[in-house]
């Protein structure tokens, strides 16, 4: 068979797949007679009312000399770890703004960081294709902590890492090699690989992972192939389900508090809410952006409030919208408030008690936003 014939057959197959995908999309739409916002409004639900003083910047964490790429809160402490292009991991006391550790990394191109469930160690990864573990209790100066374990095996950049809740020796990473890996931190060995040569895996860089806190065997991943995929750590050979809908890279994924849904954020400037069990898209959160240059800001990071009523979304424009997940409306933009970031918001996260939000930016700063005293945590 000639090359021309192969190309023709490939084109025909691609057209057939696209046709089937469009038919499937249409059938899904017929089944979905409403979305979350439509149903909520039909029941008389109104959007949460927010004033500019309900969520205020109460701390600015200054110390990084490069763009901040990632942050994570300690599960049960008021500590934050941040990773920056300056080649340092900094652990902060969120209440006092003081640095408890400033760890110099061998590879400055770090892209992700995470606290262990016990708060005693932190992990980070980046362009060195490895995930490094640091023990914060090492009996050395806080600036000279050496690596306690290096997890090697990925064949591409490490974009994301997250510890398995309540399991200090298990960690999941995602990579530009199109795979996710479950690691045994104690031995440094790979337990399972998700994707790669398996046909149901991602077909492009895997940018983000989120582990289900209600069932730690399940996690979701987002990729440059414009899909999110659900995985079961007990079944590494294939994805449990693939979620379509986005028209660009899926930069961030996050499980809903009840563990039955998850949210995504994408280069297409939308956040979406999916039902984990049915695979249906429940809601799209799309903001109309005004601009003369036709540049659409991308969603870089998301987080849910403890109840799930609020969705926090950071954008490449420096905006951070607070969405009412029920009615599908943006109720506040932190980018318009006093002390807002001056550049791209690259990461954000909510404290374990839900009382504070931390945002990290390419302006080299982290900012802690707290709810006003008269408003209860939602």
What would you say this structure looks like, in words?
The protein is globular, with a radius of gyration of 21 Å. It has two helices and 28 strands. The strands form seven sheets. A four-stranded antiparallel sheet has the order 1-28-27-26, with no helix packed on it. A four-stranded antiparallel sheet has the order 2-3-4-5, with no helix packed on it. A four-stranded antiparallel sheet has the order 6-7-8-9, with no helix packed on it. A hairpin with a 3-residue loop joins strand 19 and strand 20. The longest helix has 29 residues, at 3-31. With 378 residues, it is mostly beta strands. The termini are far apart.
Contiguous low-pLDDT stretches (5 residues minimum) are none
Please report the distance between the alpha carbons of the first and last residues.
63 Å
Give the C-alpha Rg. Answer: 21 Å
Q: How many β-strands, per DSSP? A: 28
Structural class: mainly beta
- How does the overall form come out from the CA principal axes? globular
- Main pleated-sheet profile: 4 strands, antiparallel
- How many helices does DSSP assign? 2
Order of helices and strands: HHEEEEEEEEEEEEEEEEEEEEEEEEEEEE
Question: What fraction of the residues are assigned to beta strands by DSSP?
Answer: 35-45%
Write down the overall mean pLDDT. Answer: 90
The level of helicity is under 10%
Strand order of the largest sheet: 1-28-27-26
Summarize the structure.
The chain has helices spanning 3-31, 36-42; strands at 55-61, 68-73, 79-84, 88-93, 99-104, 110-115, 121-126, 130-135, 147-152, 158-163, 170-175, 179-184, 189-195, 206-211, 218-223, 228-232, 241-243, 250-255, 261-266, 270-275, 281-286, 299-304, 310-315, 320-324, 329-333, 345-350, 356-361, 366-371.
């Amino acid at each position: 068979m000639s090359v021309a014939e192969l190309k023709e057959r490939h084109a025909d197959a691609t057209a057939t797949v696209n046709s089937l995908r469009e038919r499937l999309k249409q059938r899904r739409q017929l089944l979905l007679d409403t979305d979350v916002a439509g149903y909520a409004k039909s029941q008389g639900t109104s959007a949460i009312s927010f004033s500019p003083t309900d969520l205020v910047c109460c701390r600015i964490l200054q110390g990084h000399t490069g763009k901040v790429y990632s942050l994570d809160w300690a599960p049960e402490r008021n500590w934050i770890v941040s990773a920056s292009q300056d080649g340092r991991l900094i652990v902060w006391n969120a209440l006092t703004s003081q640095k408890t550790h400033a760890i110099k990394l061998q590879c400055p191109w770090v892209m992700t960081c995470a606290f262990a469930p016990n708060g005693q160690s932190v992990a980070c990864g980046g362009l060195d294709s490895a995930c490094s573990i640091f023990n914060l209790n090492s009996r050395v100066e806080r600036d000279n902590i050496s690596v306690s374990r290096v997890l090697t095996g990925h064949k591409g950049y490490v974009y994301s890492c997250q510890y398995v809740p309540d399991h200090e020796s298990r960690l999941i990473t995602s990579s530009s090699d199109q795979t996710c890996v479950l690691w045994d931190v104690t031995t440094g060995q790979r337990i399972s690989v998700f994707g790669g040569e398996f046909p149901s895996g991602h077909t492009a860089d895997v940018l983000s992972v989120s582990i289900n806190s209600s069932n730690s065997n399940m996690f979701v991943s987002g990729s440059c192939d414009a899909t999110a995929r659900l995985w079961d750590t007990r079944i590494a050979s294939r994805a449990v389900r693939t979620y379509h809908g986005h028209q660009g890279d899926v930069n961030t994924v996050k499980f809903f508090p009840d563990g039955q849904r998850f949210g995504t954020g994408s280069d297409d400037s939308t956040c979406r809410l999916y039902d984990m069990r049915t695979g249906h898209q429940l809601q799209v959160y799309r903001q109309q952006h005004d601009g003369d240059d036709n540049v659409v800001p991308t969603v870089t990071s998301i987080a849910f409030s403890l109840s799930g009523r609020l969705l926090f979304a950071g954008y490449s424009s420096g905006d951070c919208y607070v969405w009412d997940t029920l009615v599908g409306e943006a109720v506040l933009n932190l980018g318009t408030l006093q002390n807002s970031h001056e550049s791209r918001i690259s990461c954000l996260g909510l404290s374990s008690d839900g009382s504070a939000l931390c945002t990290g930016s390419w302006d080299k700063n982290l900012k802690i936003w707290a709810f006003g005293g008269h408003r209860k945590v939602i």
